[in-house]
Design brief:
- By secondary structure, the chain is α+β, with helices and mostly antiparallel strands.
- It has one domain.
- The chain is 18% helix and 20% strand.
- The chain contains two helices and five strands.
- The strands form two sheets. Strands 1-5-4 form a three-stranded antiparallel sheet. The chain has a two-stranded antiparallel sheet with strand order 2-3.
- It is globular.
Length: 79
Amino acid sequence: MVNAYRIGSNPVAKPANSNHNRRLAVDMTIINFENKEVKDSDGNLKKIKVFNDLVSVGRMYGVIWLGAKDKPHWSFNGR
């Protein structure tokens, strides 16, 4: 399972002290997003050319990417 889902190598918060525990964060690796279109929070179609385009649309929905430190981590406050 570790290899199939690429888990086990990410930094983690102390137990019960994580946005995951509060249902305010999710870890997901997003692939094959290039050249797809998604609706932004204003209802406009946005072409996703690079990963930062996806990050920008996520922010419009209140979902913030933590960054390269923990690549699959998305949350309401980026932590």
